[in-house]
Amino acid sequence: MWKPVALAAVALSLLAASINPKDDAWIGGRRSYWAFQPVVRPQPPKLSPNPIDAFLLEQLQAKGLTPSPPLDKARLARRVTLDLTGLPPTAEEVRRFVADRSPKAYDNMVDRLIASPAYGERWALRWLDIVRYADTNGYELDAERPHAWRYRDYIVDSFNANKPYDRFLKEQIAGDELYPGDRQALVATGFHRAGPIHLVGGNQDEEMNRQEVLTEMTLGVSNVFLGMTVGCARCHNHKFDPILQADYYRLQAVFAATDLKDIEIVSPEEKATHEAAMKAWNARLKPITDEIAAIEKPVRERIREERKAKLEKRFLEAMAIPKEKRTPEQEIVAKEGSRQINPTWDEVVAQIEPKEKARRAGLRQQMHQLEFEKPEPPRTAYAVANMDKAPVTHILKIGDHRHKLDPVEPGFLTVLGALDAPAGPQGRRAALANWLARPEHPLTARVMVNRIWQLRMGSGLVPTPNDFGILGGKASNRKLLDWLAAEFVSSGWDIKHMDRLIVTTAAYRQSADIDAKKAGIDGENKYYWRMNRRRLEGEAIRDSLLKATGQLNARLGGVPVKVPIEQEIYDIIFTEAEPDNLWPVLPDKREHNRRSLYLLNKRTVRLPILNNFDQPDAVSSCPVRANSTHALQALTLMNSDFAYEQAQAFAERLKPGCSSPQCQVRRAYELALQREPKPAEMQLALDYLNRQKMPLVDFARALLNRHEFVYIP
Known about the structure:
It is a single chain. Residues about 1-20 have low confidence and may be disordered. Among the domains are: about 40-65 and about 445-495 and about 505-535, no CATH class; about 270-380, no CATH class; about 540-710, no CATH class. It has 33 helices and six strands. It is mainly α. α3 (about 50-60) packs antiparallel against α20 (about 480-490), α19 crosses α20 and α19 (about 445-455) crosses α21.
């Protein structure tokens, strides 16, 4: 347990650090804002043996409110299973829990779910939202990142292994510095590269590009771990929070010597094996590509000659000079001339004779089939590394890299003590990570326990999880937040412990039913007089469909999977000139049924079932997913190719050993909703199937579209 006297001493020592008097005067009274004060563990009121319930009851009583009745056991089993794993329970699991009269029945179920591999997958979905993870770069090219998925798997593994949060934080910010030789810690630094990056061809302003990278790194740390809008100080002192413009660039200087780097993490033997496999694979590929090139060559040369005849003389003269004898100016002119006469692939294909074009298409199909047999690249960390020399960081006028002001040294937020980081390239990120992971840091534990609470209870105690500043949402129960933060640190930064504490409270287990009188006092349910009813994310809806139909492939991790996309989406995004290699789908259909977490997350291509149910764009940090309601959601679940395929598979799953409509309806409810149909529901279903002679697949599709299927009870 933290001692207030010790915390006060730490706070005083921080404030005694060297601070520019002018800056100190500007910060002034803003320093006293609660989020910047040390966490002091409050004493729970004596209203419940559970401290969390006690804090909530104290507030409810003050507002003239009472908690809602507890949820029935069957729906509670569905709620906690969906919450902790992102997947529904089986009907048998629900029956066992309902029949278990032991006082430990619920605790035992919670322990089983937290020990499930699906627990880490559930947490990873939320964490990857916050860090802006995707498998592609974004922007116009949106190229794939072949090694980024190891960071995603690192997140899943870390939550499943219950890695202490302080270690989890340190590895992502500075795993290469703090834990040299630890391959997983190196993979963890992919955190700095999770967001979009603008990689395009042509002439580039490299200094501007680098500034964009540093901005992404700075915002990543400030949003995810500090829960502060530090980016608002990029152009001027923060208008509301005590964050100086110099603070922003001091924090950015921490990353100034950090380079983006793919680092092989294989043994020499593994690399030699891979090189041999690639040599053999290329030997199989070469005859196919040579034949394609032979088909294209005469057309390509004819186009070049036709364009060359129309080219300006200055380009022809520069191109005629041997490359090694060209001046820099001539080299630029020659490159431009070559660009003008060289046809693109689609221009070549458009002029190939039909018979040869058909032969080329067949060869390309062979080539793409062979692509699926290509040896996986050597294990590589999508990571970062330090430069040999640290560039100087300047404060930038209005954030423009062309207008440099005073230089700054790496450091942290002045309001929290302005401690310095090393001046050299080594150890800057390690210093930041250690600063953030200190038990006495006022923000780190508060920010994370608020995220845990939000995931389990549906809304954060601070409703703006990325903004604990003055303009952020007001904390609905600061005493509870501080108790949770103190408990988190004293538990050894144990995330599973905090999850267990929250989901075993009476507050979590209460009904989500709305009481009009109570809603008149607290319509937003800020004080948790009932449980929040929440819709599943698009990923969880898709996964639940696959589980209901018995087709879910529960394999963990690995290379992201491309699944078939609707033809309409394909036609909008891709050109029709050569559609055979723009979205190659794995031949193994079992891989298409992986959990949605493992599908290729391409920033510019969204699967309708995920996009329509508010999947974030992975461009900026998403602390709270939108929860929209619109017609496309119903149309997606009713009419999309994927939904119809799942309805067909579901209908087929209802038939074996179950020939009567009554049996099929009963089985359908058990598989989809983990309960028996009510008498009225049974009658409606039988009327639908028997009297209207509707096919079983239509009944299956209707059941999978129920409100109850896509909402957590």
